[in-house]
C-alpha cells in the first residue's frame, strides 16, 4: 500500500471538543477523548515519531523485498532455505536464557484489547495472556486507543469494568497471567496519526505507546526485572526481525534499561518464514522467547505465496488440518529449531470454542481441542493457545499430564529427527477435496466476519468456531483461488466448476441465509451489504489483494474533525 494515499471518507464538520498536545511534525487526526489524551501525551508521541523516523526507510525496504519475493513466486519460484545464511542454520549458537517469569507458558489465552476481556483473560488461570492489536482486533481509532488505556490500567493493576446490566464489577485477582502484547504487522498503516505528512506505521504506534507508558511498572511488578513481552506477527523474512530487534534496542536505550529486557515470541505464520526460523531467532537472539505456530495465517500464506501456481489449489478449509504433511513438518521443524536455540516452541490455536446450548456438541468440540493439544505436547511444544477461558482446564490438563512438574520441554525434547525435513516436506501439496459446501461456508463466514470487523469487532463466534482476521483470510483467498482457476468442486459429486456466475448465486443465497440466521433487524442495522460488496470484489479481483484488512481499513478510518458515514 502507498502510505501517502490513504483514502478517507468525505468530510462532515463536527464540533472540536479538545485537542492533543503534539510535537513538531506530528498530527493526530483521530478524534479527541480525554481518556486517549492519557496515552497521546507529547512525550509519548515524540517517542513514536522518533521510532518512525529512525526505521521508516528500513520498513519501506522490507516491504519492497516482500513485493520482489512475490514477483518471483508469481513467476514460478517457490520459497526455500537461503544458501547465504547456511552458516546461521548450521552455527552453534543459542538465544539468551529464558527469563524465569515466562519459563512456564503451558497455556496462553489470547483476545482483543477489550476491557472486560482483558480482566477475564488475566484472571483466567492461563499462564500468559496475549493481548491482541492484531488478528482479533478491528483497528478503529476507538479500539486502538481504548485498548492502550485498558492495558495501561491493567499493568498498573487498577483496571475495573462495571457491567451495570449484570450488576457485576470486574477486577483483577491477586494472581494473574503474564501479559504479552501483539502489535499489528509491518504492512498496516495507522492513518489517524501522521508523522512528517505520512501515516505512521501501525505496529510502531502499538508498540511505542504500550512500551512508553508501561515498561517501568511492568518490569517492577510483573516481569521480575524483565519485559515488557511481545508477540510479533506475520513476518516473511529475518530482515523484518532485524528491524524489530533494532526497535527494541532503541527503546531499551531510550528507557535506560538493560539490553535484552524486552522479550518477544515470533509467530511463524507465513510460508516464506518457515525457511527463516533460525535466521529470525538469530536476529532476535538477545530478545527472543521463542516461536509460535500461527497455523491459520500460515494456511492463508500458503495460498498467497502460490497464488500463481494453479497446481496448488487447496481442498476445503476444514480439511487443511495439522495432519497434512506440510503442516506437521512445519510444527516439527519449529520445535526442533526452538529447542536447539534454547527457547519455547509454542503451539497454535484450535478454533473450537465452547458450545453453551448443546452439551453433546460441546463435548465433541472439547474432545477435538484435547486431541489437538495432545498432538502438540507429544510433538514437543512447550505450550499452546486457547481462544476462550472455557478451554483452559482441558489444555492445562493435557500439557500437565505430559510435562509433569517441568515448566517446558526445551531441554528434554530436542526432536533431532526433524533435522532432515526438506523443502519438499514443507511445501508438500495439501490433500483433500473441494465441495460446494466449502464454497458456501467460505462465503458465509467471510461476509459475516467482514461485517463484524467493519462495526468494530475483530473476533467473533461463527458456527461454533472462533473466527478472526487470519481464519477469515483463508475463506477469502480460497474463494479467490478457486474462482481464478475455475476449480472443480469434486468432493460432493457435483463436479461443477467455480465460476463468477456460480459464485454470484452462492453469495445471494448465503446472504439470504445470513439474514435468516441473524434476524431482519440485526441484518438491516449491520454492515452486511457493504461486507458483501467488499468480499465479492476481493474474491473476483484479477490479482489477489495482499490482505483483507488493508482494503477494509479504508472503510473504518475516521478523521477528526470529520465524521464517517457510520460511527464505530
Ligand atoms: C488466528 C489467531 O490469531 S488466534 C488469536 C486471535 N483470536 C482471538 O484471540 C480470539 C479470542 N476469543 C474471542 O474473541 C472470543 O472467545 C470469541 C469471540 C471467539 C467468543 O466470544 P463470546 O461469544 O463472547 O464467548 P462467550 O459468550 O462464551 O464468553 C463467555 C465469557 O468468557 C469471556 N471470554 C470469551 N473469550 C475470552 C477470551 N479470549 N479472553 C477473555 N475472556 C473471554 C467473555 O468475555 C465472557 O465473559 P463474562 O461471562 O464475564 O461475560
Ligand atoms: O495468529 C495466529 C494464526 O494462527 O494466524
Ligand atoms: Mg495470525
From TrEMBL:
Domain (Malate synthase N-terminal) ranges: 24-85
GO cellular component, one term: glyoxysome
PROSITE patterns xref list: MALATE_SYNTHASE
Reactions mediated catalytically: glyoxylate + acetyl-CoA + H2O = (S)-malate + CoA + H(+)
Active-site residues, as the UniProt record annotates them: 182 (proton acceptor), 468 (proton donor)
Major subcellular location class: other
Domain Malate synthase C-terminal per the UniProt entry, residue ranges: 434-556
Domain Malate synthase TIM barrel positions: 178-428
Pathway: Carbohydrate metabolism; glyoxylate cycle; (S)-malate from isocitrate: step 2/2
Single GO MF descriptor: malate synthase activity
Annotated PANTHER family: MALATE SYNTHASE, MALATE SYNTHASE 1-RELATED
Listed NCBIfam families: malate_syn_A
Protein name as it appears in the record: Malate synthase
Source taxonomy: Eukaryota, Viridiplantae, Streptophyta, Embryophyta, Tracheophyta
Amino acid at each position: 500500500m502507498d502510505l501517502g494515499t490513504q483514502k478517507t471518507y468525505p468530510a462532515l464538520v463536527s464540533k472540536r471538543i479538545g485537542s492533543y498536545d503534539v510535537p513538531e511534525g506530528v498530527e493526530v487526526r483521530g478524534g479527541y477523548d480525554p481518556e486517549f489524551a492519557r496515552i497521546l501525551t507529547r512525550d509519548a508521541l515524540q517517542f513514536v515519531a522518533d521510532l518512525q523516523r529512525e526505521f521508516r526507510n528500513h520498513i519501506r525496504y522490507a516491504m519492497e523485498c516482500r513485493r520482489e519475493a512475490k514477483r518471483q513466486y508469481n513467476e514460478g519460484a517457490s520459497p526455500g532455505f537461503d544458501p547465504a545464511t547456511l552458516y546461521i542454520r548450521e552455527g552453534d549458537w543459542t538465544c539468551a536464557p529464558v527469563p524465569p517469569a515466562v519459563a512456564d507458558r503451558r497455556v496462553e489465552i489470547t483476545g482483543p484489547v477489550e476491557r472486560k476481556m482483558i480482566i477475564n483473560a488475566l484472571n483466567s488461570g492461563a499462564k500468559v495472556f496475549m493481548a491482541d492489536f492484531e488478528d482479533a482486533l478491528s483497528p478503529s481509532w476507538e479500539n486502538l486507543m481504548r485498548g492502550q488505556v485498558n492495558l495501561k490500567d491493567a499493568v498498573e493493576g487498577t483496571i475495573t469494568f462495571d457491567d451495570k446490566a449484570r450488576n457485576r464489577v470486574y477486577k483483577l485477582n491477586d494472581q494473574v497471567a503474564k501479559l504479552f502484547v501483539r502489535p499489528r504487522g509491518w504492512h498496516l498503516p495507522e492513518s489517524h496519526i501522521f508523522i512528517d505528512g505520512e501515516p505512521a506505521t501501525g505496529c510502531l504506534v502499538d508498540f511505542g505507546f504500550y512500551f512508553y507508558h508501561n515498561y517501568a511498572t511492568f518490569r517492577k511488578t510483573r516481569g521480575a526485572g524483565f519485559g515488557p513481552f511481545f508477540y510479533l506477527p506475520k513476518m516473511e523474512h529475518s530482515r523484518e526481525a532485524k528491524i524489530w530487534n533494532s526497535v527494541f534496542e532503541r527503546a531499551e536505550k531510550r528507557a535506560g534499561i538493560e539490553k535484552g529486557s524486552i522479550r518477544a515470541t515470533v509467530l511463524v505464520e507465513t510460508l516464506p518464514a518457515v525457511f527463516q526460523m533460525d535466521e529470525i531467532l538469530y536476529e532476535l537472539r538477545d530478545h527472543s522467547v521463542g516461536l509460535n505456530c500461527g497455523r491459520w495465517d500460515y494456511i492463508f500464506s500458503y495460498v498467497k505465496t502460490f497464488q500463481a501456481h494453479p497446481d496448488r489449489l487447496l481442498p476445503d478449509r476444514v480439511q487443511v488440518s495439522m495432519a497434512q504433511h506440510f503442516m506437521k513438518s512445519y510444527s516439527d521443524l519449529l520445535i526442533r529449531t526452538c529447542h536447539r536455540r534454547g527457547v519455547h516452541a509454542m503451539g497454535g490455536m484450535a478454533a473450537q470454542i465452547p458450545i453453551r446450548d448443546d452439551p453433546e456438541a460441546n463435548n465433541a468440540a472439547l474432545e477435538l481441542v484435547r486431541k489437538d493439544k495432545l498432538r502438540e505436547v507429544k510433538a514437543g511444544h512447550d505450550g499452546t493457545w486457547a481462544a476462550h477461558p472455557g478451554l483452559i482446564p482441558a489444555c492445562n490438563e493435557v500439557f500437565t499430564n505430559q510435562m509433569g512438574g517441568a515448566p517446558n520441554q526445551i531441554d528434554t525434547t530436542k526432536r533431532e529427527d526433524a533435522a532432515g525435513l526438506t523443502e519438499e516436506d514443507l511445501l508438500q501439496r495439501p490433500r483433500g477435496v473441494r465441495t460446494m459446501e466449502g464454497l458456501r461456508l467460505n462465503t458465509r463466514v467471510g461476509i459475516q466476519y467482514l461485517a463484524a470487523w467493519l462495526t468494530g469487532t475483530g473476533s467473533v463466534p461463527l458456527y461454533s468456531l472462533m473466527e478472526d482476521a487470519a481464519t477469515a483470510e483463508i475463506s477469502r483467498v480460497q474463494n479467490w483461488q478457486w474462482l481464478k482457476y475455475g476449480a472443480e468442486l469434486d468432493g460432493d459429486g457435483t463436479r461443477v466448476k467455480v465460476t463468477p456466475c456460480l459464485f454470484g448465486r452462492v453469495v445471494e443465497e448465503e446472504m439470504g441465509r445470513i439474514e435468516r440466521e441473524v434476524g431482519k433487524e440485526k441484518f438491516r442495522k449491520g454492515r452486511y451489504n457493504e461486507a458483501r460488496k467488499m468480499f465479492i470484489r476481493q474474491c473476483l479481483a484479477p490479482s489477489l489483494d495482499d490482505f483483507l484488512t488493508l482494503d477494509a481499513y479504508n472503510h473504518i478510518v475516521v478523521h477528526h474533525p470529520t465524521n464517517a458515514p457510520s460511527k464505530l
